[in-house]
Amino acid sequence: MIIKLLNQNYYQHIYLKFKLLFLLIIFFSSILNNPVLAQLSEFEAEDLIKHGNQLMRDKDYNNALEDYNHVLKFYPANAEALFARGLDYMELKKFQLAIYDFNRSIASNEKVIYSYLYRGIAYDELDNFNNALSDFNQALRLAPNTPGAYINRAKLYTKHKNYFNAINDLSEAIRLKPDTESAYIMRSQTYLLMHKYHEAMIDCLKALDLNPNSSNAYILLGQIDFKQNNYQSALENTNKAIELDPKNIEAYTHRGLIWIALKKYRKAIMDYNKAIEIEPSNNNLYYLDGICYYLTEDFKDAATLFAHGAKSADNTRVYSTILGYLAYSNPTVNNETKAKQLLTNLTGNKSKWPMPVIQYLKSEITDSQLLKIAKSNDELTEAHCYIGLNFLLKEQTPIAKSELQWVIDHGNKEFTEYSLALAFVDYKVKVIPKR
User: What pLDDT, on a 0 to 100 scale, did the predictor assign at position 113?
Assistant: First the structure.
């Protein structure tokens, strides 16, 4: 029995040796034949990063990501690959992942100013003002003569209505690099927000001197004219922008606003339909198109478009929900289920404007409470408009007319709500008899 067991152990030992040898042969063979498992040299890593960068330039972001991932598998602290992958994530709108890579890039090399710069942009996309500002400031401390850092900090300031600091930063960017067309356009846009039309025009014309075929500069010229109620000139400049760039979404969007101001709603619909054809994933366009259908009293198509616009991730979602509710509630559509569903689907910070309007439509607060919550004239413009449109549906015409008239007399004339008030102040609800 002992001899038999010894023989068994001997053969088992030989078998395990051969098995191990066989597995080692397979393993090394797979390494030799599979580049993913093979060690990557520094030269190969550098070439792969360059290849990824070319794919980025070709807008092939997913394949570029594979290149950067391959490099980082072998060199996890490679600052160049981390920075490049961060940029890739930015293009893919994955801002939190981008921030993670920029963090690691900075940890590898604290003086990589562009990691601070682009991390600031990512924070801005996530509406994190303090972190974004901190990163832009750090980028400028490391490289105070970087025009791009001033331009991006100016964007942040403008977004938060700090126009004075934005103008200062853009002026510094222009001083450092006087032939920067984008800086002149941005400063012109900022002056426009400040209602400084003369200064806005000077900067816009300077941008056109630098680039006579700038579609964006012609759009801006049209916007400056539009703000001053020079609709014909605004139309001519916007037409020129579309002629220079037939796929410029902003040009069609702006021309649509001009048509609305001229009460040529069908022409506005044509422009927004064209814009949607070019960029069907842009939910804001469905909202704008829906407004035009609403103004033509085509509430059924308006409701469908607003339901699409309510899928947006920004404030468009709230406004699409508000008007979608009103469109579905109109007697010509009379779809109470979809109207309530739109309101139910929307969640968010109730105190943040325009969410209180949703509370009002849900009957959680009264019209007088909504007006008390509205602080600025812009918020009051919207509150009075939506209260008026809601009272129209309830066939309480005198109250509705009073609210809409307030918008016409006191509201912000640049707002869509002003156009809605003008269109519906004398509107009679068309009650469709039930069969």
Answer: 87
**CA nearest 332: which of 409, 392, 404, 243?**
392
Q: How does residue 254 score in pLDDT terms, banded at 50, 70 and 90?
A: very high
Q: What percent helix, strand, coil does the chain show, rounded to 5?
A: 75, 0, 25
Contact present, 64 and 91 (Cβ < 8 Å): no
Res 39: pLDDT: 83
Contacts of 426 (CB under 8 A, 6+ apart): 401
Measure CA of the first residue to CA of the last residue in the chain; give whole Å. Answer: 99
Q: Considering only CA atoms, which of 422, 390, 224 is closest in space to residue 323?
A: 390
- Rounded Cα distance between 321 and 338, Å, is 11
Who contacts 320 (Cβ-Cβ below 8 Å, separation ≥6)?
283, 286, 287, 290, 306, 307, 308, 309, 310, 312
**Token pair for 132:** 């974004």
Instruction: Check residue 32 and give its pLDDT.
Output: 39
In the chain, the amino acid numbered 206 is K
- Are 336 and 329 in contact by the 8 Å Cβ rule? The answer is yes
Integer Cα distance of 312 and 326 in angstroms: 18
CB 43 within 8 A of CB 71: no
Distance CA 117, CA 348 (A): 30
Q: Which domains does the chain have, with CATH numbers?
A: 213-281 (1.25.40.10)
C-alpha torsion angle, residues 128, 131, 134, 138 (rounded to 10): -120
81 with 49: CB under 8 angstroms? yes
The residues, ordered by sequence, that sit 6+ positions from 123 with a Cβ below 8 Å of its Cβ are 95, 99, 129, 131, 132, 135
CA distance 314 to 316: 5
**Residue 202 CA to chain centroid, in angstroms?**
28
* Count of Cβ atoms closer than 10 Å to residue 402 Cβ: 15
Contact 81, 42 (CB under 8 A): no
The mean of the pLDDT values for the chain is: 89
